[in-house]
Structure formats: structure tokens, C-alpha cells
Amino acid sequence: MSAEPTRLTQLIPTGYGSEDPAICHAFRHVEEAKPPVSRSGKRFTVCHRDDLKPGERRIVDDGRQGIGVFNIGGRFYAIKNVCPHAGAELCRGTVHATHRPSDVGEFDAAYHGRILRCPWHGWEFDIVTGKGLYDRTGRVATYPVEIDEAGNVVVMT
Amino acid sequence: MPDFPIIDMDIHPRESRAFPLEPHIPSYVVEALKQRLGGSPQNGYANPTGSYERRDAVCLDPKQTAIDHLDRYNIAYAMIQPPGMSVSLTNQIDVGNALAIAWNDWLIENWLKADPRYLGSISINMRDPAAAVAEIRRCAAHPQMKQLCIPGEADDLYGHRRYYPIYEAAAEHGLAITVHPGSEGALHSVTPVGRVSNYFEWHTLIPLTYQAHLVSLIAEGVFEKFPSLKFILCEGGVAWLCHTMWRMEKNFKGLRATVPWLKRLPSEYIFEHVRLTTQPLEEPHRAEHLLQIFDMVKAEKTVCFATDFPHWDFDDPDRVFPKSMGDHLRRRILYENSAEIFGLPTLDETMAKAAVGATRPSPAIAD
């Protein structure tokens, strides 16, 4: 997925200090889109890549809470199926766009098809990075995905 | 008397025979006022005792009030919330503008000149932002004018962009904006559901108006648009802020994309931009619960002492806070939070000045 154009308003009002505002910080994390890394070395085969079309998802059993695997524009992404807020099955939520930080009175729609909204309280997460879009630190684990020699989608946790 | 100088964020002089408003009324509305164009809607909830004022105090004469109130309570500065705060509700918009001018001149001539401890509020007509900006520019240069005072009742919630010119002028001149109760229910109902029956219900529910304005100010992005602006919510209590702040923050986490101009959490905007005055301070059944609430709302930054002198629900600085409140928080609430908003001398500077004043013989004694 190609990087979307960057436009973050940099407002540092009196008294706030020099740190990025929390929401700008969250979106910077999304823009940087650092690739996830495998930690346990475990591999989970999801399905053949032809059986997971763009815009579709599968929830694969990893023996724990599950992992959601999403096809976004022909590329595959894996994200833990647990919302860090209240433990809901995050990957049963809706997928859509969001509004990036903007000037007052403007709507800057971005990241179409890449934002996962928790089915319980509506918290938004970027599927690619796992970053929550509601504060500075919130995020969900994401995992690398590869296509094996047989054309199967494989999640590496 | 407090053992250090304090700041009172809310005192209420009114017009009197000795200090009338009439000489300050611009000549071009004198006839209009005779033709009864100065009217404004009332909310209908009169104080049942017949007056808003204590029976043992008046606030009519600036020199006398300095003795009765400032000297008595070791008040280094007292913010005057003038009757002109309600000119925004005047039915005839030009008369409303003229009355703002009259009240500002009345305040400067009679009160601010009388004692440097008095701080002034600029009265403006929120219904005519262009005229309000002109009035802010006319009065802002006065060194004792530190804020605008506007009523809780309004045509629109204070996050509405019709008010931007006023906020821009306030920010440009370094003036805070105080919202003060008075006429809630005159234009709308004091509750969103229906009208209340009496003053008891009305007065209890004033925080509803404040919650509405606060949520509007934050959600509409006023503090993104005007990053140096400070709002002071006067006489609306403190404890409700925990609930409103946490509820707003919880909702923000699921609904941020509907207000994408907010780049910080609602609580961050509150702690940076919003201040509350104490009177009438909540009195929980267990006094230590108030200290817990102070902790929750970061009172060491956000809460400013006020008496509401000479009104009926006056808070005494020596009696209103739990005895177990620490000295640090006492100083923050009773002096430093207010001083920082208005750029006043620090508590140490004020104490040093008072000490010099106390040891230097007065000319009468020296002679």
C-alpha cells in the first residue's frame, strides 16, 4: 500500500510543551507504517490467497484469542483479535476510513478500507500498524504475513 | 483572615445613588431608554428572600467595600463581575451595545480608579460580535481590565463560530473570558427537558448550562483555533467537572473521527484552557471527599477561589475549605491559579510588597 500524503497540523499552544499532540502522534505512527515483526516464530496458515479477496477478512485460530487477517487492496495484514480497551473481539468490527487531524471545520478523510472500528465502543485502529487513533499510546499487536510457495496466506506470530 | 494575601474571583458591586450608571450612558441611547428599549427577558426565578444579597453586607461604595471585604479578608485582588455582564440579553441590539459601553465606563470611573486591588471585567454584547470587538479594543488597554464577563445564557453555545471574532480579540489582548450565571432560562429553559418551578431548582441546575458550554467549546475546536484562550467558569461548582470530563473523554475514544480537529484528549484541553471558581463550593457529607474531587480535577491548576461578595451564598475563605487541605493547594486555589491566569504578581512578590508596606511608617506617623 502506497503511503498517503502527509498533512498534520502542527499547533503547539502555550503551556502544552513541545511534544506532539496525542492524536497527531498517533497518526504519525500510522503514516510511518513500520512493518510488524515475528516474535514467537509460530506460523498459522489462513487459506489460499485466492480465497481472501480485497476487502475480505478471516479470523484464524492461534490457540488464544484469534488473529484477524485482512486483504486491503491486494495486500495481507494480520492483527490481534482483542481490543485493548475491554477485550472485545476487535476483528469483528467494521472497516472503513477515518478523518485525519485537520483544521477546525475541515474533514480530511483518509485511510479508506484500512481503519478497523471495535464492535463494542467504536475505538478505531489502523489495521496496518495496530495503532489506536484515540490517544498517544494505545495499540494492538500486528504480525507479518507472507504467501508461501503453495500460494497460502501465512501469519507469523 | 487568611495568613497570606488571596485573590477573590467574584465580587458584585451594583449601581447606587452615589455611583449611578446614568452619567455613563451614551447620549445617543438616552431617548431610546426613555422609550423603554433597554428591556431584556428575565428567567422568572427570583431569589425567595427578596434579594440576592446578604442582609449584613452591601457592595455599593468602592472605598467602603475595600474596608469591608478586601481588608477584612486580606484580599490582594478582587475580580469585579459587573451588572453589565447581562447586556447581551438586551432585546434591542444597539441599546445592548450602548449599555456595554456605559457599564464599562461606570466600572472604570467608580471602581477601578478607587483601588488598584479591583480587577475589571469588560462587558460586551455577545449578540453583536463586531460591536463587542470594538468595545474590547476600547477597554483592553486599561491595566486593571483582565477579562470579559459574559452570561451563561446565550443565543448559541459558546463553541459556535459566530463568537470567533470575540475570542480572537480576547486572545489578542490577553484577556480571559469568564462565564457567569444570571439569566439562564431567559432565552431557553435552564434544563433541556422543560422549565423548573423555582429558584431552588434553577440555582441547583446552573452547572447544566456550564457543561453544555464546556462540551461545545472543546468539541467545536475553539481551543485549537485560539490556543492561548482561557475560559473561567464562575459560580457553577467544581464536582461536575470530573463526570463531564471523563464522559467526554470516553466518548472521544470512540467518536474522535467526528471531531477530527481535536488533536488532544478533552481532559488536556480542560486542564490547559479551563478554570473553575469555587463559590458556591460543594459541601460533601464527608469533607475529605472534596479533597478527592480537587485531586480529580487537578485543582492545583484549575480551581480559583471566589466569595461572590456580597451575595447570599457567600463563601468565607477561612471556613469553606476542609481543615485538612494542605498549604500548597490552599495557596494554589486562594492565590496562584488566579494570578497566573491574569499575569498578576506572584504570591511571594505580593507578600514581600505587603511586608514592606506594613513596616514602612505612614507619612502621618512619620510627620
Beta percentage of chain B is: 5-15%
Q: Poorly predicted ranges of chain A (pLDDT <50, ≥5 residues)?
A: 1-13
Shape of chain B: globular
Mean pLDDT of chain A: 92
What does this protein look like?
The complex is a heterodimer of chains A (157) and B (367). Chain A is mainly β and 157 residues long. Helix content of chain A is 7%, strand content 33%. Chain A is built from 1 helix and 10 strands; from the N terminus they run αββββββββββ. Chain B is 41% helix and 11% strand. Chain B has 15 helices and 8 strands. Chain B starts with 5 loop residues before the first strand and ends with a helix. The longest helix of chain B is centred in the N-terminal third of the chain and has 20 residues, at 93-112. Chain A binds chain B through residues 9, 11, 13-16, 21-24, 85, 98-108, 118, 121-124, 133-135, and chain B through 161, 220-221, 223-225, 227-228, 250, 252-258, 260-265, 268, 272.
In short:
Chain A has one helix spanning 22-32; strands at 43-48, 57-60, 67-72, 75-80, 94-100, 108-117, 124-126, 142-143, 145-147, 152-156. With 157 residues, chain A is mostly beta strands.
Write the layout of secondary structure elements.
The complex is a heterodimer of chains A (157) and B (367).
Chain A: H1 22-32, E1 43-48, E2 57-60, E3 67-72, E4 75-80, E5 94-100, E6 108-117, E7 124-126, E8 142-143, E9 145-147, E10 152-156
Antiparallel strand pairs in A: 1-10, 2-3, 3-4, 4-8, 5-6, 6-7, 9-10
Chain B: E1 6-11, H1 30-34, H2 62-71, E2 75-80, H3 93-112, E3 118-123, H4 129-139, E4 145-151, H5 164-172, E5 176-180, H6 199-204, H7 206-219, H8 222-225, E6 231-233, H9 240-255, H10 266-273, E7 274-277, H11 287-296, H12 299-302, E8 303-304, H13 327-342, H14 347-359, H15 363-366
Parallel strand pairs in B: 1-2, 2-3, 3-4, 4-5, 5-6, 6-7, 7-8
Helix pairs in contact in B: 3-4, 4-5
